[in-house]
Fold:
Amino acid sequence: MEAEEGESHFLIQVDGETIGIVQSYEESDPMYHHAGIDIAIRSPWQRKGLGPDAIRTLARHLIDERGHHRLTIDPAAHNTGAIKAYERVGFRPVGRLRQYERGPDGTWHDGLLMDMLADELRD
Ligand SMILES: CC(C)(COP(=O)(O)OP(=O)(O)OC[C@H]1O[C@@H](n2cnc3c(N)ncnc32)[C@H](O)[C@@H]1OP(=O)(O)O)[C@@H](O)C(=O)NCCC(=O)NCCS
Structure:
């Protein structure tokens, strides 16, 4: 996969099988230094706590190795499962991003901006 500048992509594997992908985008402007995270797990592997585990692992890397004090994630506002998973890691809702992204049917829907400060990361 071709990565844009600042982007990193990681495969999520269980016993050698790739079950999802987790990625980060790091803002290069030092005045706004932070990283955003995105994740997708294949449906048979959802709801087993693997998403929070993968996000926690990447968040720890971004904080400890990459020096970030603030991380963001922006699920669709109606994606209650994702929001619950991210709250388990320590993310908090910041605000609603109106008509933020297009769904598969081409219509716009709202997103939810969530963020987490370094000392809010939960084990
Ligand atoms: C969102 C996602 C990363 C969460 O990871 P996960 O490993 O499933 O997270 P958890 O096991 O902690 O489950 C979190 C909640 O998600 C919901 N959920 C997850 N998979 C579900 C499924 N197949 N059907 C219905 N609800 C589901 C549940 O509400 C669950 O909470 P509960 O177990 O207390 O009921 C993962 O489900 C996923 O990749 N989904 C598809 C892509 C997506 O929505 N990505 C988010 C983009 S921001």
Q: What stands out?
A: The domain at 7-120 is CATH 3.40.630.30 (Aminopeptidase). The helical segments are 50-64, 80-89.
